[in-house]
User: Which sequence fits this backbone?
DNA sequence: CTCCTGACCTGAGTGC
DNA sequence: TGCACTCAGGTCAGGA
């Protein structure tokens, strides 16, 4: 579910509530999500002060004095912030209680499909964590440059769609925003990555940045599960050009949007605008 | 190495 | 209503 813009939306909502607060309680309601949870997760969290809340790719990082907690929302994960003890809903797997200057908040991790995970590790081990070590650059950072992209595209025979989904190349894109970025860049998802050169390559990078920034500004895209932590929808769904629009007219040329399957995932594109 | 498929899970939607 | 089937914002192990 949540790609970079949705996760960033969650991070921005968590920051004022968590940063500087103390975790007064961590209620772990099942032993595993995607993987087994650390058996000492609650013990390592309770009583700790939260120093910072950051994001890397689709992962939220909650920094404590000695440890860092990683939260990945998988396909169907979401986080709610409440100013009173919430009524438990189905699939509320973890609930944190935080307190700051006497003000309490309850933060709930809900994930029906349990493809998400929560992990805790020593800060010193952060960079070598399996889900972080191999990640490519953040698309909104300077590390993601034309030179970088050109270099990585070289020799890649996979479709550009698969290349952009590969978190080792660029971190944080998922199915929606890859489709949308390729539409904005006028590149067919079927095109071999190593043939994205020249004009196409130069359009790709700003297309990725623009679509991510626009989506963050709208609170992400709510299709099924995604909600902002205050329960509001993400409104970027109204700005989608191709994702989920099979048969509907292209916003640029009115040709019906086409849907195909590539390595098990749906791709949506305009067969006329995207070559 | 690179690339592709299937598996992990639940719930919503569709068609009979 | 019920049932069978398909599909879904992600990733990872295993095999070609």
Assistant:
């Amino acid at each position: 579910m949540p790609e970079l813009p949705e996760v960033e939306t969650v991070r921005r909502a968590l920051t004022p509530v968590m940063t500087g607060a103390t975790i007064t309680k961590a209620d772990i309601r099942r032993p595993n999500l995607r993987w087994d949870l650390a058996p000492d997760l609650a013990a390592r969290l309770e009583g700790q002060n939260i120093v910072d809340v950051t994001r890397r790719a689709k992962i939220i990082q909650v920094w404590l004095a000695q440890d860092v907690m990683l939260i990945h929302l998988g396909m169907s994960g979401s986080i709610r912030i409440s100013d009173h003890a919430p009524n438990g809903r189905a699939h509320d797997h973890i609930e944190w209680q935080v307190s700051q200057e006497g003000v309490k908040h309850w933060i709930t991790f809900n994930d029906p499909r349990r493809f998400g995970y929560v992990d805790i590790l020593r800060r010193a081990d952060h960079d070598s964590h399996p889900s972080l070590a191999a990640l490519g650059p953040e698309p909104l950072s300077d590390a993601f440059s034309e030179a970088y992209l050109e270099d990585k595209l070289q020799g890649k025979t996979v479709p550009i769609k698969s290349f952009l989904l590969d978190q080792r190349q660029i971190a944080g894109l998922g199915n929606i925003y890859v489709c949308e970025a390729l539409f904005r860049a006028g590149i067919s998802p079927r095109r071999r990555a190593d043939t994205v050169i020249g004009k196409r390559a130069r359009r790709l990078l700003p297309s990725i940045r623009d679509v991510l920034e626009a989506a963050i500004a709208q609170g992400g895209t709510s299709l099924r599960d995604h909600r902002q932590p205050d329960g509001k929808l993400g409104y970027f769904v109204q700005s989608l050009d191709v994702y989920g629009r099979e048969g509907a007219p292209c916003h640029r040329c009115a040709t019906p949007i086409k849907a195909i399957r590539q390595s098990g995932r749906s791709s949506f594109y305009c067969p006329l605008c995207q070559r």
User: Anything to note?
Assistant: Residues 198-217 of chain A form the longest helix (20 residues). Residues 1-3, 5-6, 34, 58, 72-76, 113, 115-116, 131, 165, 167, 174-177, 220-226, 243, 265-266 of chain A lie near DNA strand C (CB under 10 Å from a C1').
